[in-house]
Amino acid sequence: MGATTAEAVAALVVVALVLLALRFALRRLVALAARLAHDLPPRIATSHRWRRLHPLKALLAARCPRLYSFLARRFSTDSFTGLPATLLAAAAIYVLFLLGGLVEEVVEADEVVRFDTAVNNSFAPWRETFLAEILFGITQLGDTATLVAVVIVSTGFLWAFGRPLFILPLWVCVVGSQATTWLGKYGFGRTRPEFVTEATALSPSFPSAHATGALAVYGFIAYAIVRDLPSPRQRFEVVYWTSVLIALIAFSRLFLSVHFASDVAAGLLVGAFWLLVGFGLAEASLSRLRGGG
Q1: What residue ranges of the chain have pLDDT lower than 50?
Q2: Is 244 helix (H, G, I), strand (E, B) or coil?
Q3: Which residues, 6+ apart, have CB-to-CB distance to 291 below 8 Å?
Q4: Are 257 and 163 in contact (CB under 8 A)?
Q5: Is residue 230 in a domain?
Q6: Using CB atoms within 10 A of its CB, is residue 29 exposed (0-12), middle (13-18) or buried (19+)?
């Protein structure tokens, strides 16, 4: 039995309230994290335990100068190639491990199939309401044609506003993510769920190109906008609402029964990996421009 229009409206209101409450909570949490990040390093540097490490650091520098020099460069906060690049690389490796684990689960199939089927069936009563029309419109924001248009327009804006260093990382992020996704689609050849709405697709199911493209394209554009915004609140708003857009596009693929949950999860992980690559290329270019190599 399908959900009623009243139930669909109530669900929409609940989602809107949850998004607003989450925005409020995250803004407070980010502000707290920023204060801790600002205050913690000086405290650590002046602590007794940190001072006790100085003899060990001197011993390592004397016994293993190359290793010490390498570690010192990796954890230096003076340039992007130090600690920021180390953290970015660690995040990218972690995403790859998550993706590898998910691929292994999909190959083994049994548990993932049961989970994917349960998630897909849970949305069945709601697909007969106006929510399907809303999410069909949202899902088109992740279409290949839409993303290509967004990337081309963004490239023009980056060039016009004197930010050409962001153009190559943007295209590497987009091309890399799409190439990985389509290799995965035809490498695994996974069958899509049964189409039950007006949304259909011809390509294999795993991973979701919409999820990958949304995260890679809109994520990098948000980064390019945020990079020079003066206000922390402005930066938070751009990141938060971009994340909501990406999440809605990803969710629309499940709701409209054109992808399984594991397809969408894999697409987001692929997009996240290439987004981190794009961040790294952009920040490295900016660092070289400033002479912070």
Answers
A1: none
A2: helix
A3: none
A4: no
A5: yes
A6: exposed
Tokens of 145: 């044609």
* Encoded amino acid at 122, one letter: S
In a domain, 20, yes or no: no
Q: Which residue has the tokens 């795993």?
A: 206
Residue 254 included in any domain = yes
CB of 274 closer than 8 Å to CB of 176? yes
Tell me, what's the pLDDT at 293?
A: 53
CA distance 85 to 64: 23
Q: Please answer whether residues 190 and 204 qualify as being in contact, where contact means their C-beta atoms are separated by less than 8 angstroms.
A: yes
Supply the range of the domain harboring residue 103: 79-289
pLDDT at 82: 78
Question: Which residue do the tokens 């987001």 mark?
Answer: 268
Token digits for 165?
């260093």
Q: Tell me if 256 is assigned to some domain.
A: yes
pLDDT at 280: 93
Q: Are 184 and 266 in contact (CB under 8 A)?
A: yes
CATH number for position 229: 1.20.144
- Separation in Å, CA 94 to CA 60, 68, 149, 166: 28, 25, 31, 25
- Residues 129, 11: Cα–Cα separation, whole Å: 11
- Predicted confidence at residue 242, as pLDDT, reads 97
Alpha-carbon distance of 266 to 16, in angstroms, equals: 26
Number of domains in the chain: 1
The whole-angstrom separation of Cα 57 and Cα 38 is: 24
Residue 182's contacts (CB-CB under 8 Å, 6 or more residues apart) are 203, 209
On the CB side of 97, how many CA atoms lie within 13 Å of its CA?
A: 6
